[in-house]
């Protein structure tokens, strides 16, 4: 079940990467490259941070092919994508949650402490988008936009609490996804956001 | 002793990260995230380069908490920070030196060659600031500004020479810190800088 | 033989890094740093992705010295470099091909699957240039320019096919270099390029 959601997730993330590459007029190679890194970069950074070798996508070439094809496919269908706007946002939110839960599980298996497990979940969830924005030379959206990274944080905490309280894994997944999706959609719908820190003057750093 | 300086150092670096995030109008999450990466990113890159797993902060959740809290705290006190300008610069310089010495020691323990030990010291000293600037979409300061990275380089060399000559560790630390602080403060005071390379024309690369 | 080409390659890449740093008015330290990362960053990212520790340049301090000296040397000769434009492009292309072949071989030795071997070749070939452009705050050239990354991709595929068909290593190298050089030079000469993806509207991602 989580596997199917994961494949939908990397497809959605790859498409978001391809669109960002398109805004920078990249060529086909650049589009495929950014799609790949957006979709699989978060998990890669997590594995490299945790020393979890071999890095997961190196053992599943299929994931590489899916993300590259999704990226190239986006070049063709981009002009129709505004019609699918809402569906895409839901898939993207599902990806965020799936990545977060998977990231937590990898760190749990390696017996890292709770804080690190949460960091691993967030890293998996948001770092692909951060790398996408770095490659496209813009300030990472996820550090500025409406509740996005925070959804990842709260889902990670909820998932670990339910797990700690002995809730069965299936129910835990269901509750975590329900909560995360509802929160993310509500955040988009009513434009919820965290306080923004604006710092203007000063000469240093 | 080095531990206390280290904690002061990551606090100062986290605050410099938070201020940079504030210049990009990031939200609370972004501020905490950039603070964390600025403070602990240098050591992380060093550990990943040297294959020094587990990465050090994953074994010390307290460091994670300190940097995140320091980042959020900065949002509150930012308006008063210009008054603390000079103190902050000294703390930042102490951080640079502490990071450099710690980075050298990690590579020494893993028995890397001298050149690599120096690179490890510099990486620990300056890479947090480089990642901060990448996340905030600006050309890294430390590669342009007055003597900063060079202080890290010279401190690393001095520290290794004294160590090679059999100077006791405490005296070595004292001399290295004294030299580094004096050099950095003098560089700020009299605007010392390295020759700048300006290349304008040409079409390639 | 491949070793000599490799040394020419890291020198050429270091010089391209130094020139990019010069466009951002970096100081001597920044120039040396960007030169080092441009030349050795691709191999570093590959080693970190594949878990191939120790990272190769940490075992060959000479490579570090070469790239730093090449970077500093570029500050002196930059004004004359436009006369060497064509030679430089050929050296840069040889570097791209040498890096690609070396990257493939590292992944082959670690017994990764074919897709990952190709990714390792491309990563070694182009990631130094990507890191250079990130440090210089611009959208990576290799994801936008005329056939460059694609040359790396095609060379990797050709090299693996010939290897698979039992062609001797020397002839394989000769053919791969011949093909890659010819393709790259033709691409520059006649401005061949891949289709570009331009995406303008939309609010998401």
Describe the structure concisely for a colleague.
By secondary structure, chain A is mostly helical. Chain A has helices at 2-23, 28-50, 61-77, 85-109, 114-135, 149-164, 169-189. In chain A, 51% of the residues are buried.
Distance between the termini of chain A: 47 Å
Helix vs. strand class of chain A: mainly alpha
According to DSSP, the number of beta strands of chain A is 0
Residue share in helix of chain A: over 70%
> How many domains comprise the coordinates of chain A?
1
Q: State mean pLDDT of chain A (0 to 100 scale).
A: 91
State the largest interface.
A-B, 35 and 40 residues
Question: Beta fraction of the residues of chain A?
Answer: under 5%
Q: Which sheet architecture does the biggest sheet of chain A show?
A: none
Large-scale geometry of chain A: globular
In N-to-C order, the SSE pattern of chain A is HHHHHHH
Query: How would you describe the oligomerization state of the chains in this entry?
Result: homotrimer
Low-confidence stretches of chain A: none
Family (chains A, B, C): Belongs to the UPF0126 family.
Main location (chains A, B, C): membrane
Membrane topology (chains A, B, C): Multi-pass membrane protein
Transmembrane segments (chains A, B, C): 6-22, 29-50, 62-80, 87-108, 114-135, 147-165, 171-190
């Amino acid at each position: 079940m989580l596997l199917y959601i994961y494949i939908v997730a990397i497809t959605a993330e790859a498409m978001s990467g391809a669109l960002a590459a398109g805004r920078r007029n990249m060529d086909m190679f650049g589009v495929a490259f950014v799609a790949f890194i957006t979709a699989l970069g978060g998990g890669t950074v997590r594995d490299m941070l945790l020393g979890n070798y071999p890095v997961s996508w190196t053992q599943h070439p299929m994931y590489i092919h899916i993300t590259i094809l999704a990226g190239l496919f986006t070049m063709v269908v981009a002009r129709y994508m505004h019609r699918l706007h809402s569906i895409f946002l839901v898939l993207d939110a599902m990806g965020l949650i799936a990545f977060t839960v998977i990231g937590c599980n990898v760190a749990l298996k390696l017996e890292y402490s709770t804080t690190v497990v949460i960091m691993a979940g967030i890293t998996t969830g948001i770092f692909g988008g951060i790398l996408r924005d770095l490659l496209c030379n813009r300030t990472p959206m996820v550090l500025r936009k409406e509740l996005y990274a925070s959804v990842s944080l709260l889902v990670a905490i909820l998932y670990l609490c339910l797990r700690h309280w002995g809730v069965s894994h299936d129910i835990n997944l269901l509750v975590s996804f329900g909560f995360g999706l509802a929160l993310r959609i509500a955040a988009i719908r009513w434009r919820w956001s965290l306080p923004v820190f604006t710092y203007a003057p000063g000469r240093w750093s």
